[in-house]
Design goal:
single chain, about 160 residues, alpha+beta, eight-stranded antiparallel sheet, globular
Length: about 160
């Protein structure tokens, strides 16, 4: 943690926080889908306040339930690939959506009104080293989140696939 990095908030360990993420995410998905991403398509919180970050919807299958879930996530593009980060605000555990993708890597994303089939792959160390600075350029708070957790925050590459 650098001198400029804020200390890890005690609230991150609150059992209420995952519930807040869950319901805020549901609200964002509802609005995003109904507006084709015109509302909810940019993240404007934290570092995103000054430099809004594009947001997509990730549709993934539950690893235990088999149910379909939709999660709003920040992203960047890397050629034809879309890159997302399993930061969950620096919580100690990987987000459920990431664990679901590890079990069922074929998923769909929606960017604006465009829905695409993708295959998720966790970036290897070389890919992560190349992509991490690009992700920080898009959303500097990822670096803060990494400093708040002992786990290495996974970078996920979503590669296009045909239906």
């Amino acid at each position: 943690m650098t001198a400029a990095t804020p200390p890890r908030p005690k609230q991150l360990d609150s059992p209420i926080l995952p519930k807040i993420f869950k319901y805020a995410g549901r609200a964002q998905v509802w609005v995003y889908k109904r507006t084709g991403g015109r509302i909810g398509g940019k993240w404007r919180i934290g570092a995103g306040f000054r430099k809004p970050v594009p947001t997509l919807l990730l549709e993934h299958r539950g690893r235990k339930s088999g149910a379909t879930y939709t999660t709003p996530l920040l992203y960047i593009t890397d050629g034809d690939d879309v890159v997302i980060v399993a930061s969950q605000g620096g919580l100690r555990h990987h987000p459920q959506w990431y664990r679901n993708l590890c079990a069922h890597p074929d998923a769909h994303i929606q960017i604006g009104r465009d829905r695409r089939a993708v295959h998720a792959v966790t970036a290897d160390p070389d890919q992560r080293a190349r992509l991490w600075p690009l992700l920080l350029d898009a959303y500097a708070d990822f670096d803060t989140y990494q400093s708040w957790t002992d786990r290495e925050i996974p970078v996920v590459v979503l590669r296009p696939r045909s239906y």
